[in-house]
Amino acid sequence: MTSIRLTSLSHAAGCGCKLGSNDLSEVLRHLPAIQDANVLVDAATRDDAAVYRLSADRALVVTVDFFTPIVDDPAAWGAIAAANALSDVYAMGGRPLLALNLVGWPRGIVPFEVLGEVLRGAAEITRQAGCLMLGGHSIDDPEPKFGLAVVGEVHPDRMFTNAAARPGDRLVLTKPLGTGILTTALKRNLRDEAGLAAAVASMTALNDGAARAAATAGVRCATDVTGFGLLGHLGNILAASGVGARIEAARLPVLDGALELAAGGCVPGGTQRNLEAAPAAWAPELTAAERFICTDAQTSGGLLLAVAPGRLAALLSGLEAEGTLAAAVVGEILPQANGLSVVRGAEQ
After folding, report:
1. Domain 162-343 belongs to what topology?
2. 147-171 pLDDT, tens per residue?
3. What's the pLDDT tens digit per position in 89-135?
4. CB 309 within 8 A of CB 168
């Protein structure tokens, strides 16, 4: 196969190229108000996918996600993009049913055999998920892009949403943070592909086990941590649920090397914008690197779950049984008046 560095064709690393939180608010206000009672979830709560009720016991979960290359291995890029898109269905408590490919490809610049490898990587992940890949659409594009539109299903009474967090809930994270920083290091020649192995393993890991464990434990509030970072996606939960939260930075699971890279200035643009937009009260002793970890623009991150204290042990046991990459209790939901704060640890 022709050797080509895919990340050199991308103008942005990771999911940091997506609209910022303030930009998104400006865009979403132009969407029409939804009057259909069968629409259970739309863009108003910034949930991970739309949910449309078909019957008393069945609803469709619909989502779409795509992005430019964040690694140079085409099959790995395809696998990451597929896992990332499927994650939105799991974040709603759903099960993926079918997917369509979305492709932007620089005809005449990158051989189509490379695209074949991207599709192969994506197909392996959809196969693992039991999700049918039924086709898709492609356009000629000077910058390569790939992702999926996914349709899933969920029982309307058992779906997860941003709006179900309650004061006292514990916050649990199921994958380590730092993929945005590490993939930016690859683009800046500060890491090679071998040094990105743990990040790629995390980004290609499905969130199906985390979703199963959460459903079994009775969780009703969840999101996946992607382009807006941990605090950005937590902020969506706080706004939709009318609550506050405290995050303990010392408890956050972090990929090896991410803190050191951030301390050295290797920070993606999306992460910096997330930090600027984060409405958080930061403990003064937190380093800049710790703050960047809290706002790092993730690709195919873990689920952030809000669970009642009485169900926490069952959730952690279920996550352990499912073999999730992390099962870290990273904070707590508070009454709205407390806002969002980030401290170093419990002693604070």
Report:
1. Phosphoribosyl-aminoimidazole Synthetase; Chain A, domain 2 (3.90.650)
2. 999 999 999 999 999 999 999 999 9
3. 999 999 999 999 999 999 999 999 999 999 999 999 999 999 999 99
4. yes
The position carrying tokens 């795509």 is: 66
Coil vs helix vs strand at 45: helix
Q: Is 346 exposed, middle or buried (0-12, 13-18, 19+ CB in 10 A)?
A: exposed
Res. 346 pLDDT band, cuts 50 70 90: low
Could you say which DSSP state residue 158 is in? S
CATH class of segment(s) 6-154: alpha beta
Q: Which residues of 282-318 are buried (b: 16+ CB within 10 A; e: fewer)?
A: bbeebeebbbbbbbbbbbbbbbbbbbbeebbeebbeb
Name the catalytic one among 15, 131, 221, 294. 15
Inform me whether the pLDDT recorded for 23 exceeds 70.
Answer: no
Cα-based distances in Å from 12 to 101, 175, 271: 21, 23, 11
Return the structure tokens found at 232: 């950005």
- Tell me the two tokens of residue 24: 């998104």
> Which two structure tokens, joined as six digits, stand for 265?
């200035």
Whole-angstrom distance, CA of residue 348 vs CA of residue 346: 5
Residues 6+ apart with CB under 8 A from 290: 249, 259, 344
Local structure of residue 114 (DSSP, 8 states): H
Known catalytic residue: 294? Answer: no
